[in-house]
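quick one: flavin mononucleotide bound model?
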Amino acid sequence: MTEVLGICGSARKKGNTAKLLEEVLRATGMESELIFLSDLNVGFCLGCLSCVKNKGVCAKKDDMKALVDKMLAAKAIVLGTPNYYYSISGLMKNMIDRTISTSYLGIGEYTGMDWHGWRPFVDKVGGAVICQAAFGGEQARGVFECLAEYSGLNLVGSVIASCGAQSVDDFPEYKEEARKLGKKIGEEAK
Ligand SMILES: Cc1cc2nc3c(=O)[nH]c(=O)nc-3n(C[C@H](O)[C@H](O)[C@H](O)COP(=O)(O)O)c2cc1C
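yep, here:
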């Protein structure tokens, strides 16, 4: 069973985000799986709010349901994205938008606001990896923090790696940060 789920928002399978995610996952010491959003068929959120009216069931029939099931089954979720224009990648934003349906599954911590629903990831440990050339990673991290606040995901740390046009392999300090984050996630998720 996947205990810690890594979700990669870069389409580059051997890119910096993927490499750092692998480092984090390994260091957790937990059963892990790394999912590339570019391998999945996840459509964009229609904003139709049918998930609000239909107990969390999304109107779109694509790969998001299986991904949500994996997220709900995992003890920890590590989100990784390249910084694109001071934000997360489109692949990652698309996926995060679609997690809105989980707020209406009736699980987690009730927010007391019907229009807001539940916090489905309250019992899960979270981590974030952001890879960039140089600037804007904090803003990208802000989107993950928003997801954490909304969903209850306990974001215990993040790595922002500024590698210019180089490979993260040239920056052992970021690999070390990633391992520290993984270790922390492993400890917190026990
Ligand atoms: C569309 C696009 C937008 C980008 N915007 C930024 C940016 O705002 N700031 C930055 O420092 N790097 C930016 N970059 C560089 C990437 O964040 C960087 O190359 C990152 O390491 C890519 O991660 P990957 O190797 O996992 O794909 C951008 C790259 C692309 C393709």
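Residues 4-188 form a domain with the Rossmann fold fold (CATH 3.40.50.360).
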